[in-house]
Amino acid sequence: MTQAAGQGSAQVRDPGLQPERTRLAWRRTTLSCTVAAVLAARAVLHDGATAFGVLACALCLLLWLGFLAVAHRRMVTLTAPRPRTMSLGAARAAALCTVALAVCAVVMLI
Prior knowledge:
Blueprint: H1 2-11, H2 18-46, H3 51-77, H4 88-109
């Protein structure tokens, strides 16, 4: 009888607070990306707007928008009772946006 109860409980998964913690982590990461994009824009405007600076700033803002779209889609997915795992394409897009934003920041500092 305990085996049947164990099998029934294995089918119902209680995720606990894990989806909420993951949503909060995505929000913190999005906030960090936002701060990086705003600081990039500030650096361009503070040092004088050159064509290269404006182009780098525009690229930073596009990367920020891409990351924001991926993060928003993931946060919405996590509201489901049984959220799906993140797709490989979305994970690659988030990683690409993050690394490219860091590269843009380095290029703007040089």
